[in-house]
Amino acid sequence: MTTLVKAGLIAVSLVMTAASLVRADEPIKISMNNWTSQNVLSHVAGILLEKKGFEVEYIPSDGQLQFQAIADGDLDFQIEVWEGSHLTAFNNALATGNLVDYGTHAATTREDWWYPEYVKGVCPGLPSWEALNKCAKLFATAETGDRGRFVGPPADWGKHYAERIAALKMNFEEVPVGQAATLWAELQAAYDRKEPIVLFNWTPNFIEARFKGEFVEFPQYSAECLSDPKWGSNPDAVYDCGAPANGYLKKAAWKGLETKWPAASQVLKQINFTNEQIAAASAMVDVSGLTSEDAAAKWVAENESVWTAWMK
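User: That's the sequence. What structure does it adopt?
Assistant: Structure tokens below.
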């Protein structure tokens, strides 16, 4: 084979390889949910993929149904899989073999009932859940009557707080909000008046840098708590425990992403956020007032040394 022919074959091979890596005619579909950090991080991932020459599409998705949609190929990637919210739906989709675990972030998570620090002054014994229950009437509203109000998350976040309240025989009623922003509005209003409030919160989140507070300590989490009534203090009910105190934060992708867009797959597998990075990204939106898109662009501009390592 002549040198010229060899060179021609190499050139053709390189062109074919490049074509297999970048499919500009088809966007990579990133799942978008209804909380801030997920939106910002999704746009960060999208910006990095666009730097590699890929087209990206952001698809609003249900917090629980999105995992089956990924398994079905209707979505390609999810950057935030929270153990406390997504465990069951994520595992069910994994079991199909068509959704792939794309790795765990350095960040650890917690999602549970939370109260501002000043509440301890009127409810002795906190953070114990039994102490909270004894103070239930402090949290009562016209809407809940004699029962304390727990300001819960949006319904599609996959929580089972009504079941937990029943299982632990608590004198509380969950009042879910429609969106995360309402949680922070409720917290700010109560905080300004120093009124007792207990609400859903999570970490990493910008809240921890703005308000002092603590998570309620429920019976320690166990996987059996979610499925075996015999586990825990109530032998007739499940959900008689708290959420994982050090939960995972994973990424998930459609099985076909790796073969269809191998270079994109490698970038997405390398993306790895810490608690501090996620909290700071959220604060750009929830404190500084940027859009998720602008916050992502700002994060990318200010953290080049972080994301360049993901692109290699």
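Residues 1-21 have pLDDT under 50 and may be disordered.
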